[in-house]
């Protein structure tokens, strides 16, 4: 399977709490729900297309617990049957049970376990949210594709997908579009380490 990271971001790179004020208030975050005002039907259709490519889902503990709390109740949501039915994996050394079935807990050497998952047949192993897990997988060279959806808002606080001091990575822009609600959608393929140069230097 191909490992695909999907993240909703603010213009200042925050990925925390996109869906509701109380979605994730850890660390004193008070500005959740910043993604919702920019949703539109075009993005919903695009997100449905992406989800239709998933053969499994991978989460960090915090995102998993939030999703496990909310998605089983959202029976009328068009994505609910897929989200609730797909095989799910959660990376955690603290969880001992996971009730959002079917779920498997990954602990210990998570990058090695994710690498093993990638060797299984299938289309996409999708990471939704889970910024800290995504950072570690990117640093381990396991991410194949980044789908970044950037909302036209600056929130000024919260966890960022790509914090200072993170691992470097080279990327190739594979697709880009803007929705009527102002969401800028970027799809990148990873290319290994980044390249560097000097402006104006002879080739």
In short:
By secondary structure, the chain is an alpha/beta fold.
Descriptors:
alpha/beta; Dihydrofolate Reductase, subunit A; 5 helices; 8 strands; 22% helix; globular
Structure in words:
This protein is an alpha/beta fold. The chain has one domain (2-22, 29-125, 132-167, 186-192): Dihydrofolate Reductase, subunit A (3-Layer(aba) Sandwich). The protein is built from five helices and eight strands; from the N terminus they run E-H-E-H-H-E-E-H-E-H-E-E-E. An eight-stranded mixed β-sheet has the order 4-3-2-5-1-6-8-7. The N and C termini lie far apart (38 Å). The model has no long low-confidence stretch (mean pLDDT 94).
Mean pLDDT: 94
How many helices does DSSP assign?
5
For this structure, the quaternary state is single chain
- CATH-level-4 superfamily name: Dihydrofolate Reductase, subunit A
- The succession of helices and strands, N to C, reads EHEHHEEHEHEEE
> What do we call the CATH topology?
Dihydrofolate Reductase, subunit A
Report the span from N to C terminus. Answer: 38 Å
Q: Which helices and strands appear, and what pairs or packs with what?
A:
Layout (H helix, E strand, L loop, with lengths): L1 E8 L31 H11 L2 E7 H10 L9 H6 L2 E4 L11 E4 L3 H9 L5 E5 L2 H9 L5 E6 L19 E9 L5 E9 L11
Parallel strand pairs: 1-5, 1-6, 2-3, 2-5, 3-4
Antiparallel strand pairs: 6-8, 7-8
